[in-house]
């Protein structure tokens, strides 16, 4: 490019930038920051809400969203390092104790439903449904090094290696799945590919004909052409994960609520208070976009009321519980 043409291109670029700035004034530098970290399951929703919230404030408030996993997020939260924890399960006793030790008081607010999805590769031609007993046989600690082939789970399935993918031990998905399927949170075989990065799990399952894994519903719904969901057979028969099967209560025991935990002291800051209010009013509109399942309007109303009235603590008391209606939990007297 000659000097004249180069200079001309600079002028044109400068004029274009000036016109752009005139029609879209520069957003102000962030004057406040909100720190969020935790569940990779909740991340897509919080990231979407954060983006809309920042746009509505013309960039004056910055929201950072991390993916440390539910357990990793609670560690940071209970040490006072972040303002809000994304969580795909309720807070546990040891986390409650850490928060209490560090003087962290918190709100527990449900924000959406997830349907934990058991998935195989589309190349898998032999599995359409699995019973809870079959899933337990695969995932319980006693299966490690022993249940390694498909025909060991069901005689009609092929004599082929069973290649497993699942959540890492710092993940709330790991806690919930093991509690729902094995009967005890964190009780699992260890010889499988584990990750807090759900996209990595999707890729692993997709590419291996003999793979089986479990992932949050949003990651399955975004990759339906690359994965095949397995119907879970329980008391309601064989049921596939979907918004409808979660809302009507048929997809059990792998449907679960997702939560925000907000530091009560941080919530006194106007930007944090405004973000939480925004999340509870505008968040439900974004849930379908990120492929999660909204709560009932009554549940969002209860969450907003709890936050506005300063009702702190957890309705679970540090014990993992599977299959409870959100409204029932929110009627309980919360504990710290």
| Principal-axes shape call | globular
CA-to-CA gap between the ends? 68 Å
Radius of gyration: 23 Å
Count of structural domains: 2
Q: Which CATH class of the largest domain is shown? A: Alpha Beta
In percent, how much strand structure appears in the residues?
A: 15-25%
Main β-sheet, in a few words? Answer: 5 strands, mixed
Structural class: alpha/beta
* CATH fold topology of the largest domain: D-Maltodextrin-Binding Protein, domain 2
Enumerate the spans where pLDDT stays under 50 for 5 or more consecutive residues: 1-26
Report the order of strands and helices: HEHEHEHEEEHEHEHEHEEEHEHHH
- Assigned CATH superfamily of the largest domain: Periplasmic binding protein-like II
Helix tally?
Answer: 12
Q: Roughly what percent helix? A: 25-40%
Arrangement of strands in the largest sheet? 2-1-3-13-4
What average pLDDT do the residues reach?
89
Account of the protein in words:
By secondary structure, the chain is an alpha/beta fold. It folds into two domains: 32-114 and 256-330, 3-Layer(aba) Sandwich (D-Maltodextrin-Binding Protein, domain 2); 117-247, D-Maltodextrin-Binding Protein, domain 2 (3-Layer(aba) Sandwich), CATH 3.40.190. It contains twelve helices and 13 strands. The chain has helices at residues 3-23, 43-56, 70-78, 93-101, 132-139, 172-182, 198-207, 217-221, 243-247, 270-287, 297-308, 326-330, and strands spanning 32-38, 61-65, 84-87, 106-115, 117-120, 129-131, 163-167, 193-195, 211-215, 228-229, 231-234, 237-239, 255-263. It has a five-stranded mixed β-sheet with strand order 2-1-3-13-4. A five-stranded mixed β-sheet has the order 8-7-9-5-10. A three-stranded mixed β-sheet has the order 6-11-12. Helix 2 packs across helix 10 (270-287) and helix 3 runs parallel beside helix 4. The longest helix has 21 residues, at 3-23. The chain is globular and about 60 Å long. The termini are far apart. 42% of the residues are buried. Mean pLDDT is 89; it is low at 1-26.
